[in-house]
Amino acid sequence: MAEKKSRSREDSGKSDVQEKVLFINRCAKVVKGGRRFSFSALVIVGDGTGRVGMGFGKANEVADSIRKAVGDATRNLVTIELEGATIPHDVEASYCGARVLIRTAPDGTGVIAGSHVRAVLEMAGVKDVVAKNLRGNNPCNQVRATFKALAQLQNRKDVLEKRKQV
Questions:
Q1: Do the Cβ atoms of 68 and 42 come closer than 8 Å?
Q2: Can you say whether residue 3 is alpha, beta or left, with left for phi > 0 and alpha for psi between -120 and 50 degrees?
Q3: Contact 151, 134 (CB under 8 A)
Q4: Where in the chain does DSSP place strands (E)?
């Protein structure tokens, strides 16, 4: 029951932030009078210039869960290292049952990745990259593994300066 939306909004005077709903889950609780449904939403926000965040919200209505997830994602924005239109180096990370491999690519390649990893990379502003989901199909774990991989990225100049100081 995946639902995809994309819309832009102004984030209190900051740069233009896009939001995308990756996954909506419906959960049913059986009670005396019947079933009670609740919803959880997984949302990605990003400005396309290296800032991206993820949020997870739960509520009894779909709109409320999306609103909570967007608020959570905007509070948890992280900045990633970019080198032109791609990432500085290859990286691999795992989170729970999911494992993701992200590799650099030459100009003009585009974003070659699965749906959830692709959404995170596009929201971050990466234009040329090849990614592979090595294990797991849980959307939340895939996204968290992707964020863990992006957090490992380091700028070449910073690494060289650190090596010279040692």
A1: no
A2: beta
A3: no
A4: 6-9, 17-31, 34-46, 51-59, 78-79, 91-95, 98-104, 111-112, 129-135
Question: Taking the model in full, what pTM does it have?
Answer: 0.85
Question: Could you report the per-residue pLDDT of 84-113, keeping only the tens digit for each?
Answer: 889 999 999 999 999 999 999 999 999 999
Q: Which of 144, 108, 111, 151 is closest to 130 using CA atoms? A: 111
Q: CA 8: distance to chain centroid?
A: 16
Give the C-alpha distances (Å, rounded to integers) separating 82 from 6, 71, 88, 124: 23, 25, 6, 9
Set out the domains of the chain in order of their start, with CATH numbers: 6-78 (3.30.160.20), 81-154 (3.30.230.10)
